[in-house]
Amino acid sequence: MAIDLAQAAKEKGIRYFLISYTDLFGVQRAKLVPASAIKAMAKAGAGFAGFATWLDMSPANSDLFAVPDPDSLIQLPWKPEVGWLAADLWMDGKLVEQGPRTVLKAAMASAAAMGYELKTGVECEYFLITPDGKAVSDAADTADKPCYDQLILMRRYEVITEICDAMLQLGWKPYQNDHEDANGQFEMNWEYDNALVTADRHAFFKYMVRSIAEKHGMRATFMPKPFINLTGSGCHMHVSLWKDGRNAFEDDAGELGLARIAYHFIGGVIQEAPALCALTNPSVNSYKRINAPRTLSGATWAPNTVTYTGNNRTHMIRIPEPGRFEFRLADGATNPYLLPASVLVAGLDGIARQTDPGKRLDINMYTEGHKVRGAKKLPLNLLDALRALDKSAVLRAGLGSSFIDSYLKLKHDDWNAYSRHLTQWERDNTLDC
Ligand SMILES: [Mg+2]
Known about the structure:
Bound molecules: magnesium ion
Oligomer: single chain
CATH superfamily of the largest domain: Glutamine synthetase/guanido kinase, catalytic domain
Radius of gyration: 22 Å
CATH topology of the largest domain: Creatine Kinase, Chain A, domain 2
Number of domains: 2
Distance between the termini: 69 Å
């Protein structure tokens, strides 16, 4: 049974609840509600004007209600008198079909109808930068190959351990923290779980990292490519499907320890990869991470072609060990709910159609990628990705037409707003045309 939030407030000393939802662009919106009002709010939801956020609504629409999921309650480790709650969106007595959390729950219900539960683990890379956003926060973090650098990591000990301690306290089972491949870039890993649990934690993680970084006088960014010469921030997702409490992707007799349905799932993801990009790489800036030229460190760690492999980090999909695969395409701008929802829908379609993923490639894609024939290329920009999404019957059927239409409309507006900017590159290269 779901917990009673008014009771939880008394027991845990919660004075305020943050009723939060993530909109289509990944922005978290919230109302801060005193504990004295939570009883009514838990039932009816907190009211919002939907048009004021990225949900494709009109100012004439009725109230949007964010109804909190009591199971998602997280007491802010850095301010325990506040309880954070992920919410589902309702309007006129009906679930809002384009609400990202609703989209994920619907995709997971389709999986459940086939007997499957999606489990995911995400690796959210981020940069610690100066508050003005112009440089990495540590001026001495300048090496060409700073990955795993002990000294630089330990200079950020206070902020990293405050975040890790918070995850320990919340029971997320974090297990490692490191300095990543770009100057100023870090990654923290916690244990995989049910995809909805992971998605709520992913949303909360982004809020928590930003909040704790601010406390320490820095700014955290998940922007895919904040510095053009440095490796971008990915959001790699580890994926497995479970049936009757057992990992259905695991098969000792299968190639690399993966069952046949895992390969069909991968086949589905490969089939839909260009369209998935519109959701897994949703910003204009995302396309400066994938398809990027080599960075200072020597590798971008991001894919450019739709291929899969064994334990090799130069492909879109890596099979690091039996029972799961790693989807390396998504970046820091991806919506925590739409990432697993879209990959699941593509994978389930692959299972339903018994899609063949093609041949596994065991080559270094960064140096030998040009030799690959017939593999799909990833879109070169957001517009190409949106057009691919528009053409994807599989994602439309699995994610719902309301969602696809709303998302495409808002993202085309986003692209058009970007296209109206005159860049310095254009002036440098066209003034004398
Ligand atoms: Mg990483």
